[in-house]
Amino acid sequence: GSSAAFRATMLRLLVLLSASLVVHGFAPNDLTAGDGCDTLCAFAAYGTSKADAEVKCKADCAVYGCEQIHAAYPEMCKCGADCGPPGPDPSPSPSPSPSPSPSPSPDPSPAPSPTPAGDWTSGSGLGQCGDLCYRVSNTCQFDSYAGPTYACQAYLKGQVGAGKLQSFCGQDHNKIAFGHKLGSMQCGECALIRVKNDAGSPTDFQEVCMMAVDVGSGEVSDQTLLTGPDALCKYNAACRSATRVDYEWRTVDCTSCAPP
Question: DSSP assignment, residue 226?
Fold first, then answer.
């Protein structure tokens, strides 16, 4: 699980660092954007439905090319001769819910009302997406942001999603976040995430309210996890060293979910 997330993070960094080359017609490994996308196939993996996987794989392939997307999401996005049933999910799902059906899901816009907050669900290996992705400062300007593609891009730009995003972003930016869907969350739904602090810290937990904008094995921005003033790992030395942490989460209403 951690290796897949690491490959995804390194891919995003590689693409951003080589952006100037892509503009001039060159890309890593002599690939240009969109190479091999006519042979692309997508599969349910990482707790993501087949329909959501198709949206994510196609959008990223058009920007980065099929081989690079396959390297980032080897079980979810495949190319040509590699197309075949996915192997066992390489990362444990943070939710005890059954895996989503591989049949196409209904149009995610508008999203269903979030499930009322309940008991905390344990998750493992929450990681960071490198550079600019999932940062609040960028994603809250989604109508003009030209950064990484998100699986929930169409929803966030639709009438319902855009209104929900604007309302969510009206809260304290140090207390909200964006990242991968957890469990059976839908695009635009929110979860309160908490990480256990080390002994002697001012509080028992660091908390943040995250809106689901993408699919994957469990990631938020670098600022949310590590570098922000209220980062989840601010008082967790093991997390700051490993850049990955076990956590708990529960669904909440996005309207006023930012912790105090």
Answer: I
Ramachandran category for residue 216: left, alpha or beta (phi over 0 → left; psi -120 to 50 → alpha): left
Distance CA 39, CA 35 (A): 9
Contact 79, 67 (CB under 8 A): yes
| 257 to 126, 127, 172, 229, 237: CA distances (angstroms) | 20, 21, 10, 18, 26
Q: Residue 172 CB: number of other CB atoms within 10 A? A: 12
Distance CA 172, CA 170 (A): 7
CA 121, CA 38: separation in Å to the nearest integer?
39
- Quick count: other Cβ atoms within 10 Å of Cβ 144? 6
Give the three-class secondary structure for 44.
coil
What's the pLDDT tens digit per position in 26-85?
A: 333 333 456 888 888 988 876 677 887 787 888 778 877 888 778 777 888 888 877 865
Q: How far apart are CA 174 and CA 228, in angstroms?
A: 7
One-letter amino acid for residue 154 of the chain: A
